[in-house]
Amino acid sequence: MGKTLRTRATPGLAGSLLGGMALFVAFPHAHAAAPATNVENGRYLARAADCEVCHTAEGGTPYAGGRAFSLPGVGVMYAPNITPDKTAGIGAWTDQQFVDAVRKGVSPGWKHLYPAMPYPAYARMSVAQVRDIRAYLATLAPSPQKTPENALRFPFSVRGLMVFWNLLNGPAATYADDPGKPAEWNRGRYLVEGPGHCGDCHTPRTATFGLDNSHALGGNVVNGWRAYNLTSDRQSGLGAWSDEDLARYLATGHADGHGTAAGDMADVVGHSLRYLSVQDIHAMVVYLRGLPPYRTAADMVEHTTPPAGDAALPQTTRGARLYAATCAGCHMPDGAGRQSSFGTITGARSLGADNGRNLVRILVQGSGMQTTTGVQVMPHFVGGGLSARDLADIASFVMTHFTTATPQDMEQRVRNAQQAAKP
Amino acid sequence: MTTPTPRQPLHQSPRQLPGRTPLQSPASRRQLMGAGGGLLLATFWPAPRGGRAQGEPRPEPGMLAGPARGVFAPNAYIRIATDNRITLILPNVEMGQGIYTASVMLIAEELGIDMAQVDIEAAPPGAGAEITGGSTSVMTEWLPLRQAGAAARSMLVQAAATRWRTRAEDCTTRSAMLIHVPTGRTLPFGAVAAQAATLPVPQKPALKDPATYTLLGHSQHRMDSALKVEGRAVFGMDIQVEGQKTGTVAACPVEGGTLADMNRAAALAVRGVRAVLVNPSNTAVCVVADHYWAAHKGLRALRLQWHPGPNAHVNTQTLYEQLHEGLHGPAIVASAKGDASAIIAHASATHTATHTATHTATYQQPLLAHAPMEPINCTAHVRPDGCDVWTGTQVADRAQATAAELTGLPKDRVAVHCQYIGGGFGRRLEHEYVTQCVEFARQVPYPLKIIWSREEDLTRDRYRPAYVDQMTAALDDRGFITALTHRIVGPAVVARWDPPELTKDGYDEDLSVATLVTPYTYPAYRLEFARREAPGIVTAWWRGVGGTRGLFVVEGFIDELAHRAGADPVAYRRAMLAQNPRALAVLDKAAQAAGWGTPLPPGRARGVAVQFAFGSYMASIAEVEMPEPDAVMIHRVTAVVDCGRVLNPDQVVSQIEGGLIFGFSAALYNEITLEGGRVQQNNFNTWRVMRMNETPRKIDVLLMPSTEDPGGIGEVGTAAAAPVLANAMAAAQGRRYRTLPLLSARNGANGTEQG
Amino acid sequence: MPSLNINGQDHLVDVDPDTPLLWVLRDVLGLNATKFGCGIAQCGACTVHMDGRAVRACNLPVGLIGAGRISTLEGLDPADPVAKAVQAAWVALDVVQCGYCQPGQVMAAIALLRAVPHPTDEQIDSAMSANLCRCGTYMRIRAAIHHAAGALA
Ligand code: FES
Ligand code: FES
Fold it and tell me: Regarding predicted confidence, which is higher, B142 or B683?
C-alpha cells in the first residue's frame, strides 16, 4: 500500500527529515523517488525488494529470469521469468496467485517456492503493496524466455518438503508498527526486514537454512562472499560508522573510509538501494543503528595508514610489485583512489576481514556496480599470466599494507574462489 | 607513374583535414611538386616480399628517375622546392622502429643536408612495395636511398657549377647549401632546384666513401621524438575528418560464427547513437555514434547473440593435440644434408647402458596476441566518386586494393593515408580491419572511424601460431652433434598471407629463420614440416614468427646438449662456431662483457643464446634469480650485436632493448587460450604484459663495428628473449623449460612439456 | 550538462555524466594527445592530471569531476620547469618508439617529479609500473626520469 509513503510526503514530517535532505544534497547521485500511482509505487517497491537482480540472467533481459543460484549441496535453481508473458512468465497469474507467491512462497498449482525467494521477508509487505508490484511488472514487455529446470539433489528436489521448512522457518506477517519507536525506525525496520530482506544475506543461517534470528544481521557467508555484520558493534559492525557515511554507502555504494560495495552488495546498491528516497535511506540508517551489538571475529579488522603518493610502494615483494602494476592505477598506493571515488578503498573492511575472503573474491571475480555515472567496474584478474600465487601475493600484500591482518593460506583461498567462480 | 595526392604532413593537426580529400588526378608530376616547382627525384624501394601482385614487373631497386615515365613506378621521392624546403616522401611506415630517422640519415648523408632541414611525408600506396615488416626496411633501403641522395646532389652541384661557370668538382654541399670551395660562394639548394630538374638523372651516381660519413654510424636523435613527446603525432586513432562519426565493432567471438539476434532498438535509443550496421557476411556489427562512448554503450545495449558456427568446440587442448599428432606421420622435407635419420637410427641402436648417443626434445609454443598499444582502428569515407582511408598499416598497397575492390572504384580513386602506427609487431601486416571499415563505411554517407575496444583487439586478433617442434640429435663421444633432425608442426602463415610464396612442396620458408639458418653447421641435417593449420583461428605474422619460434627451440636444444655433455654452455657453443667468425666474435664479447664464468651472488644463474637471423648476429646473456620455482627476476641482460654497418647506433640499442622486453612479455605471459572457440583473454587484466618493475635493471647492448651491409634489427631482441631467459632459468632450477609461457603449469616439473 | 575545467578553460560538454573524460577530450574537444589503450585503467595511455595528480581519463566519468582541474599534454605550460625537463629528457634520451604510450608516460612522470623531485629507481618503478609500453621503452623511461630530475636539481 502506498499509504506509508504518502504519509511521509506530508509537510508535517518534513521537519524531521531535514537530516535526510541534507544528505540528499551531499550525494548528487542518489535518486529521490516520490511514487504517486500504483504502478510507480510498485516500481519503487520492486526496486526496494531488489526483484530485478535475481530475476535476470547475467546479461539477459531484465525480469525474464534465468539467473542461476547454486547452493552447495543442494543443487542449482533458476529464478523464473516474471515478465507478463502468458506462458513463460506470470502473465496468466491472478493477482492473488502473485500475492501468495511473494508473501507465502506458494505458486499456482501449490508448488512451493524454495527459500531462495525471500518470501518470509516479503511477507512483511502488505497485500496492497505486493499488488502494486504486480501492477508494475504488468507494464514490462513480455519475454518468451523459458526458465531452465532446477537441478536439485534429493531430498531438496521434493518440493513438498518445503511445507516442513515453512513450518520451521516459515513466512512471517506484516509488522504492526511499534508505537514506542519513531516513525522512521518503524519505516527502517520495514525496509530492512521486509522488501530489503537484508537478513537473507547478513543473518547467519540455522541448520535447516532458516535465518538464525538470535544473531540477526550479525554477518554471514553467502555465495562465498562475506556479508558483513550490520549490528552496532564498533569493531566488527557498523557502530563506528557515522550516520552520514552509512547513508552514503547505502545510497551510492561507496563511502570514503569504508570502501565500495562489491559482489552481491554492489548489485543490491545498483539495482535497489540507490533508487530509494533519501528519507527511506535515512530510515534504514536509523533502524540499523538500533540493532543491539553483536561481535563477529571474522569481521574484525584493524586498519593502518600506509604512506601516500605514487612513489610510495616498496618494490621489495612480489605482491607489492604486482600491486604497483595492476592495482595502483585505480587505488593508489595508499588506497586513496586515483580518478573516481569508487576506487577509494581506504578503511574498507574487505582489505583485511575474514582472512581476505571478499578481497580474494573481488580479485577473482571482479565486481561491477551500476551508478548514475555509469557502471563502476573492478575487473577481475584471473588468467593471462597472473597465477593463483600471484593473486594470493596481491591479496597478502593488500592485507598487510592496509591492515594489521595476518594472511593465511591465501593461495588456497584463491584457488577455492577460482573454483567457485567457474560456471 | 602513380601519383600521390597532395598530402598532409604527418604532424599536421588532424582537425584541419578536409572532409573530402581532393581525389587523385591522373599522373601529374606537378602535383607532387606542389606549387613551387623545383627538383623532384623519384626512386624505388624493393618490397621485402609479397608486395607485388602476381605478374607485375619488378623494378630494380635503386632505379632513379627525374620526370618518371613508362612502367617505372617509384615509391620514394626527394622534393627540393625553390623555397629551399626539402621533403622526403617515404613508403615505409613509422611504427616505432625509427625508420623515418634512418631513411633521412641515408639521404641526408649523401645529399649534404642537416636532418633538421627535412620534412617527411608518407608516400601513397601504388608501387606495390609498401610492406613494412620482417626487419627488412634498413636492408632494402640501404642502397636506393643513398643513391637517390647522391643523384640529387650531383644534379644540384651540376646546376650550381653551370650557374657559377665553374667545375662541378670545385663544388660541395653542406646544410642544404651549395658551396664553391675555392671562393666560398654559396647558394641555397632551392635557388638551383629548377635548373637541376632539367638535367639527366645519373643512374649510377658516385657514393660517398663510408670513412667520410658524418651522419651514418653516429647516433642521431629520432625525427619523431619531440612530436611524440608533445602529443602532436597523428596516429590512425587520432584521425578526425569533418563530419566524421565514430563506430565501435563487435565481431562474432567464435571464428566462423554469425549474428543470431540483437536488440537494435535498444542501441538506437542510446543518446548519440546514429546507426547500427551489419557487415555483408553477417559476422560483425558496428554501432555508429557521435563519439566512442555512445557507440560503446550502444554496442552493449545490443545484447548481441551469435550462432557460434563450426568452431564452437575448439579449445587450447584440441589445438595442441593436433600439433602433437603432427609429430608422427608424413611431413614435407624442407632441407636435408646427408642421411641424418640413418645416423640417428644407428646411434640409438648402439647405445650402451652408460652412454645414450641420441637426444630428443619436444618444444611447444602457444598462440600469441600482438596487442599494440594503439588498438585497431581505421577511418574511411566512401563516396560514389572516391574513397579515402586513413589508418596505420604496414600494407597500404593491399589496403588500397581491397578498398577499390569493395567499392568498385578504380584504384586511382582510392587514397590510403598512412598514419603513424602505435605499435605494429606484425599486426598491421593484416588489413582485415580496413576491409571491415570500408564495408561499414559504404553503408553511411559520412566518414566513419571504427575503433576496436581493447577487448575486441585481443579477442579478434590474428594470432602468432602455436607450434610444436621436435629435435633429435645423434651425438659423438664428446656430446657434439653428428646428425640432427628437426620437425616443425604448425601453420604456414605465408600460405594465407601470400600464397605464391609457399614452396611447391608446401613449405613456408619463414620457418627456416633461426632454424635451418643458424650460426651452426651440422654434419647431417634434416628439417621437416608437418603443416597443421589452427582450427577456428586466423594465424598471422608476429614480430619475427620464424625467428622467434625457431630460436627458442634451437637454442634451448643446444643448451640441453651442452648440459648433457657436461660442458659449459658458452664453451660448447664456441666449439660449434669455429667456422663462423662473426658469430664467435659476438659470443666471446658477450661472455666477456657479462662476466660469464665469474661468480654470481647466491641464487642467481646465467643463460646464453646465440643467433643469426634477419641478417644480424647476436649473442645474449641473461642473469636471473628464481627465489621460488614460479618466480623469476631478470637482473641483467647483455647483448652483443653484429648487424653489419650500423646506421644509427643508439636506435639499434633501443630496438634491442625494446625487442627483448617485448619478447620477455611473450615468453612469460602473452599466451592466448581458447575455450569453446572463444579467446579467453580480453584486456590487460587477463592478458599480462611486462611492466617497468619487472624489467631488468640493466640491459647492456654492445655493437660490433662492421662494414658488412646492414642487417635487420627490429626482431632480433624479441627472438633472443625466450631462449636466453629459458636457458638462464634452466641453469637456476636444474630443469629444462621447453614450453612457453615459461612459468605455465604445462612446463612439467621434469622439464617435459605436457601438451 | 557537465562543466569541465580543462587546461584552464571551462567547457560545457553535452554528454551523459557516465562518459569517461577520455572520450570527451578526444571525441568532443578534439584533444588527441591523450590516448586510448585499454579503457579499464590498466595501461595508463590516457593519463592526464586532475588537480596535479596523475589520473586515468578512461575511467573517470565526467559526472564525477566536479570542480577538478584537468590538464592534458596539450595544456602543459611550456614554461613549467618540470614539464620542460621531462619532455627534454625524453628527447635527449630518445625514449619513444611507436610513441603511443608516451603521452601517458610523460604525464605520469611529470606528476611523479612534482611529488618526488629525486626519485630512486624503486620509487620510479612504484609510480610508473601502472603505465604500459608494448615497445618496451621502460629502461629509457627510467633513465629519462633520472635525467630530468638531474636537470631540475
Ligand atoms: S586507456 Fe586508460 S588506462 Fe588504459
Ligand atoms: S613507445 Fe610504443 S607503446 Fe610505448
Answer: B683
